[in-house]
């Protein structure tokens, strides 16, 4: 299976990684705790000499953190938070961190919680915003989901900015996936066109962990932990029957990070199938033959499947969902059906148990690691907005919290590099290359 | 919805609750720890005066526990354990308890683990039994499933008893559901016919908690705990979208105990649909209208569905599975489809998230409560077998471990009594009667 | 160790198990869900024929549940809840269940939450009561502790009843241990003396599970589950060093139920020391010799200690705490010191790790089993109060929720019967009788 | 409190970060899965331009991973693993990963598990090594602790190398803290002196996360997660009594990372006291006054204390433990005593509950994040050893797995930089600077 792999080209960087600003910061800070990040503190993009491009330039990104001088007068500042797209562990933690930082450390006048995603800006939907006080958010991190509610899909940018102006919002925090970040970019354009002073800060959210230039998205660690629960059960089911097969489908439309990472966490998985590594079902090097070899040798098998794996085997309908994502074909059904036919033909009396834990993976509260991460993201988002930054996201890169241009995170997707040491580790831990190889590996 | 309910008749008791025995116990016990249960210690069946039948007789059941005199000579005793049917939390705990009790307390010569259910007795399947030593079972309770594997469906009784005779087994422990208990009864008949001295002790297993005269089956408590994890996520999903609906399907073919109990545990559930309480989809008193009222009033809803609920709404195919159970129609798909149609007609833009946690509920390790319970079941099963009891199950009734005739547990199923205080509590905690009632409850 | 055990006498029942009432119930019920428990429904105390006293009378207890006719007019009824003594998993669940039942099902006019135990009734402490609305209690079951706060010790009964009269309270719910139940009894006396119409209903709470005539107190199941976490760690520590000893002290002042039950749950414990089963430290049959034998044979040992075990080995100071409990001597320190001396003398280089998880055991949220239990206790407490019952507690006996006279639960304590099958199981699962026996068991 | 802080100087790097090797690698690799890391692949030490020293040189470290050419002939290679010092989540995961990688991917002839730390090398202790086969380690990651056992303190280096030679060991993997890493360095010296070909690879372990040049030690993430359980309980206890104080002591002899990180995870903590940030007990800026202000304002307080905090307030005895660490004074006892005196003097009737979860924090199994981390550490340790590297540790730096000279990790300790954005976040999330400031913050 390996020789055929052609590797991912490295993502190309845009020329300019500098962050837009509403204007020079001026108002003396009232930050209570005085360690500031100078505005020119930066982090290298590349940490390995071999990754530096031929021109020898290692680009740098702006470091996040509290600035000594801020742009907005806190006493007159009104903030708004909106959460868009699918659920993900930690959204409530980000909402809480933004709210507490804005109230306790900057003493802003209010924080508004927009209901149900971008719909909440549009009058005719009639969703009244929530007043996010410290008391209102005190315990929300103990619960999964988002207390604001969410929705998918775009809304008219003009009406959104109308809302912001009418409500006198200075800082808008947008928590969402790459579709949402593109919407945020359009909101910034409209704000610029109107020459109003509103900072727009994104907090990228995707349970698939597939956003470019973000080491790991919040909630991913929790998602992996929950996915291992499902895999553990699939293992018990596989061992529980002659020729038992446990099949788990996890999220991962275009990137198989949850599948790969949870396989590494348990090291009880026999096959990991991800969108980045194509496979055939049929033929001596196909999955069905590999699975048969595994069953013949060990009597059971655990298969972890990213939802976007093997899409080449399905006929796409071309349909899209409300967020504009192409509807994926149902690879799990195809595999279940083809395994049944194949095992019947091979005379193997198998038992396949299928687990789809998706909503249980994404709707749990964040674990302590993600809580901490979300706390920093929220705090740094507020620091950035108060300093007058706009059109950017807060993120972590090479271990530092940074400001990234919105444009950087919306171009392309992060994928597993199947030529990497990481993917090799996955293959080693599953041993699947042995079974995919008709000569016995 | 209430007036129409007609209640369950109380299950009728067979005339004889006495336990069969292979013969008088005689060999002096070598039990290390000397508190014995006299053979005539018994427990009342009915604990409420009003449940005693008109004849005034409150039947009694034999108490379980170590006997001062035992039937088998431990040094010559070989035991076997077989696990059948679907997985359930705690099976490994029962296997471990039987093995440790037999080895440590009675010092039997060996305990054999039969692989893959009744198949393991049948030569042509080629499943070699495991030697269950204390070391081999030391940590198995930390894992879900069954280390022996399981299978469904009957096998020829003659071949099973041939196996037992050939392997010189004195005590057979059968862990399984009611189909398995019927198989155990047939094994006892064949043993009796052959006049061999083999004790057969059942440990009833069903995650549905639907076995007659067993207060609660092992694993049920764990299953409820796990089901609440799914419901918690469904709640987060329902709150996360305008008109969000979280739909969870849990196990419960003919009895809705998991659905009802997990709704009581969380008290965040809005509708519990179980096989015992029929409902319509259509009409002003139907589920679709009730759900619509709920959404209109509160904006979201959590629905917990037992897999066997609403079967009257589906056309049965009459097919059966390997265990002989009638294949249920897929009520979840029907509800999802009909809700979509109905909400479209009502002009309600809803989001339904469906979670089926079944294999995650049944394949986890037992929680501490079930661990303790399984430990006692296993120990008492060994005590019963060594005392020469046969054709019985160990169980808990009115807080005591007891010996019950196999015939008692295989007649009929335990169901939720919809006229009970218990079901009323479920309805109160969901408030569903309010929404099912077109006049506002 | 066994022959010397003298067993507990069975607790004697008071002559009268009937429940006091404020007067005949009369106001037609507005219960929304109509299955009522007739006032004469009763449950037998004894379930085993051999437990029935020589006079042949099996006493009965009143069954709990909603009554068709109630005493108080809900629209004019004000309730109050107070929580006293140490924390225990599930207190918030009981508060929540009482509040939701009173509001949703009876539509009472208000529920008052008294702050910090009996202190909250006394003006000079200045603790303002909380208004317990359904929204205020919606999520409190997700948190350990008590949202009302607690305190220890008595307060003047006159001032308490003054408070109830002044605030126009009709139903008082008292959640607490046996000291609190005695205080509740004195409150009832004062109410009776004043001839006012106030129902006082107790919900017995003790993490030690040592209240007479209550099968299991709420929170105990959760406490056992948490205690097993500590024992699991003690096991890892014991295995992690040559002659490693893991020592865990759990709650249990006069009764060792948590110690015994958590040992049964894990079956990895080597010694369980409880107040009911005396032991010596020195001598060939003493604990130090037993521990030495165990280390010599297996190289490690796990010891679980109830805090009240071995008090005969300590000189009592005679001091009492605010609740009037005698201050226990510190058995853990004594054992750690004596083990160190003994092992030094024996030339055994040991490592002892001591874990006291007490506050982590009692301050966690209730698990699903306890949630359900607390839900029923709270609902039935409201049913009892609304029906005009008073001077009683709600409890579970032989599987049914019942009304018990306050006097019954305050007389004596429930202890482990060291002659029982239960304790024998503990000894079998630890194997400690082998090591306590100098002849090798 | 802030102005007085003087910051940590940045740790100075040794001049040479290159890795020793036993000789050129030559034998063609039999790695099954062919993506190799070239031997000259390196990672920058500094990722922020401002951290680069005045000479403008950003040092680089060798990247870990499988090499195309290896030094040892796998068929003749015998490995050994030893675990030293205190327990830490994930040790079994590292043992398992080394064993599986060595057996499955390199097909080495055997892996030996040395019992009880360095003691296991010394004949007179009589600890027989374990044969670590893939089957033997299959499930060990589900358990805390170390299956090999551990011990503290040094052993004669000559005897250790005698053992390695006698047993024909080629690769020794040493899992332990900085004392152990110094022992490993001495073993390397002796091996070099004898001119034998034995690779020694360290895997640094410390639950305090205080090893220089290691972003995060394995087990730390799990430890934080477990510590938050204790803090959650302390919070429930603090809320449960008038003027309730919950005091939690966590590990952290010289570095307060667990305390700080778990405070960030929960954001319910009011005071974090760590060794890096000195504090006084008395005076208007002392802890007792700060705690009093907090109680007066909010009625409760949660305090998290690293074991090494406030040592200046205690008289050191100068004693050391078996590992050579100075015995810390008991700061918790001092604080409990002084709080009691102070509150009495202030007329505040307080309740303090003290939780020491140390052994429960360090003895649990690794969470999924640490499982993955330990898996990579173990795999890369084997890759390094097989390539003939020696005198180094595997570690993660700037997101990459790297080879670090042993000397680098044993010089000094990593501490919280109290001038950093990180510590500011801790102070913001606790708000403690407000209470430490007599003017109200």
UniProtKB/TrEMBL annotation, chains A, B, C, D:
EC number: 2.7.1.11
Cofactors named for this entry: Mg(2+)
Entry keyword tRNA processing: no
Residues that coordinate or bind Mg(2+): 178
Record-linked HAMAP family: Phosphofructokinase_II_X
PANTHER family: ATP-DEPENDENT 6-PHOSPHOFRUCTOKINASE 1
Name of this protein: ATP-dependent 6-phosphofructokinase
Organism listed in the record: Alkalidesulfovibrio alkalitolerans DSM 16529
